[in-house]
Amino acid sequence: MPIKVESLCYTYNPGTPFARTALEDINLEINDGEFVGIIGETGSGKSTLIQHFNGLLRPTRGRVLVDGVDIWQKDVRLKDIRQKVGLVFQYPEHQLFEETVFADVAFGPRNMGLDEDEIGMRVRRALEMVGLDFEAVKARSPFELSGGEMRRVAIAGVLAMEPSVLVLDEPVSGLDPRGRDELLEELTRLHRKFEYTVVLVSHSMEDVARLAKRLVVMHRGRVVADGPVREVFRMTDLLRETGLGVPQVTELMHELARRGKDVRTDILTVEEAKVELLRLLRGEGRVR
Amino acid sequence: MFGNITIGQYIPGDSLVHRLDPRVKIFITLVVITVLFLVHTMAGYGLVLLFILGAMLLAHLPVKFVLRGVRPLLFILVLTFGLHLFMNEGRVLFRLGPLVATYEGAFRGFAMSMRLVLLVLATSILTLSTSPIELTDGIENILSPTRALGVPAHELAMMMTIALRFIPTLLEETDKIMKAQMARGADFQTGNVLQKAKSLVPLLVPLFVSAFRRADELAMAMEARCYRGGQGRTRMKQLHVGAKDVLAAIGSTAALIAVAVYL
Q1: In a domain, B80, yes or no
Q2: Do B118 and B167 fall within a single domain?
Q3: Are both B41 and B102 inside the same structural domain?
Q4: Do B20 and B125 lie in a common domain?
Q5: Does residue B210 belong to any structural domain of this protein?
Q6: What is the pLDDT of residue A104?
Q7: Whole-structure pTM over 0.90, yes or no?
């Protein structure tokens, strides 16, 4: 289910004194099975962009193609598009409303008009996918869960529609370090095991560096870089200009290289840095 | 989704109208409203309209944008005009089945619709050119003499400030939750009245939850800054009536009263 965005522009409140252009001439393609990270500082248009992927916003100009079909053609049912492209908003736990976890997760499948057996199966599967114990949580009120659990339930609510593309807007913001590691772990597992196409919006360099394979950098409503993660992080100057910077370990390697050490500068994670630093120290004969 | 609501919005600016004392602007708006109920001739309405358009231009407000605020009123306008058109006695204009439209009805219908439009325009100029904070400061100040009678002027003003402050926040929140539920296949548009009402549950429950959470947080933040009501509170920005305020008040009032008396 590839998503293709062609010369997309979007303006908020057009024709009023509050008109604000949020997106300008965006061209982007998200292919099946990819894990794409979208980064950009606050107000760069990330959230506006992803709301075009499932037809929640209508482009002021340009087209959005899902599976090769322009989603704003007359005969396209947006409900179908929204089932195929699952969108998890920032702080998704704010959308919980039902009396029980089961009923809340079932909201999406029920809107799709599935029968009760299928709904039950999907709710169970979705809750297990996000690492929750179905039997233990199904009858509880979503409002008495912990913050991290609420967020998982909310994400399960989107997964239960079994979309083929999963788009998440800052899924770990506001979670504690453990909750955030666990959730990111689940996402990687979903991507590997169920071959979900995942689009992850974030402003944490560390998170996207660890997870995504391809990176799209946004700045003031435009895409300023798009490519494999390592290549994008090599453009340190561009990233600094957009107010983002690179992961701290990458920064460290750049600094070492600047001081004349022979190290790779395309390091993204602490693990990789460890290997590279040990190699360097061995070379200098400091460790064996 | 809610970007087209102009009432209660404020367009920042530095025009003469923006800089007038909020109390003076409230006073002039009240005079306009009173005069609107006193005039009975087309010329009278025309002059009030001219006055309002003048104020709009002086305030550098985009006329098209202000006029758009009248759009939600369209149904009421048509109804008002229709009722007056057919319910008055007088010279026959045309017949529509058992209904008789009269010249007098058309005139009165037009006058009433005009009155409604001008009311909305006058008040929206006030809110568009006055920041919510200034507006409530002004209201608090106007109400302050009644404090001796037990009217909680400060508390009323504070409540209004908070309510106004949260309108955009709640609209944004509504928009966001609506989209989140639409992403899960919710449908807010189709169906009969009952289905539509039911489809609002997934929107209203989260909205209430978040409104209460925000209220809690705000109360905490206010307490953390030692808020304890209006007693002994001083202001950073004192309201001050200057020469231009006096001139504006006297000039507008005189002009409007003249219109009311002679037309």
Answers
A1: yes
A2: no
A3: yes
A4: yes
A5: yes
A6: 95
A7: no
Amino acid at B238: Q
Question: What share of chain B in percent tops pLDDT 90?
Answer: 32
Query: What pLDDT shows up at residue B7?
Result: 55
User: Is A17 within 8 Å of B187 when comparing Cβ atoms?
Assistant: no
Which residue from A91, A16, A81, A92 is spatially nearest to A52, judged by alpha carbons? Answer: A81
In this complex, do A95 and B3 lie within 8 Å of one another by their Cβ atoms? no
Name the one residue in this structure whose structure tokens are 């200034």: B134
Read off the pLDDT band of B1 (50, 70, 90). very low
Number of domains in chain B: 2
Interface of A to B at Cβ within 8 Å reads 12-13, 16-18, 51, 54, 56, 79, 82-83, 86-89, 92, 94-97, 107-108, 111-112, 143, 157-158, 161
What is the 8-class DSSP label of residue A94? Answer: G
For residues A165 and A195, what is the distance between their CA atoms, to the nearest angstrom?
Answer: 9
pLDDT at B5 over 60: no
Q: Where is average pLDDT lowest: A214-218, A236-240, B59-63, B121-125? A: A236-240
Residues B197 and B159 in one domain: yes
Structural domain including B162 reads 152-224
The strand ranges marked E within A105-221 are: 165-169, 197-202, 214-219
Same domain, yes or no: B219 and B247:
no
| Residue B72 domain flag | yes
CA angle (A52 as vertex; A17, A112 as ends), nearest 5: 125
User: Which residues of chain A make contact with B3, given a CB cutoff of 8 A?
Assistant: 12-13, 16, 18
Instruction: Please indicate, yes or no, if residue B54 is contained in any of the structural domains.
Output: yes
* B chain contacts of residue A161, beta-carbon cutoff 8 Å: 184-185
Secondary-structure percent of chain A, ordered helix, strand, coil, rounded to 5: 45, 20, 35
Q: How many angstroms separate the CA atoms of A128 and A134, rounded?
A: 6
pLDDT reported for residue A288: 62
Q: What single letter denotes the amino acid at residue A40?
A: G
DSSP state of B41: S
Interface probe with B: pick from A10, A11, A13, A16, most Cβ of B within 10 Å: A16
Domain limits, chain A: 247-288
Structure tokens at A195: 């071959």
Closest by alpha carbon to B32, among B157, B119, B124, B149? Answer: B119
On average, the pLDDT of chain B sits at 86
d(CA A287, CA A214): 35
Tokens for B23?
Answer: 């109390």
The residues near B27 (Cβ < 8 Å, ≥ 6 apart) are B249, B253
Are residues B27 and B120 located together in one domain of the fold?
yes
Q: B208 and B121 in one domain? A: no
Separation of alpha carbons B106 and A68, rounded Å: 56
Residue of chain A with shortest Cα separation from B173: A94
- Mean pLDDT on A165-189: 88
Q: What is the ipTM of this complex?
A: 0.86
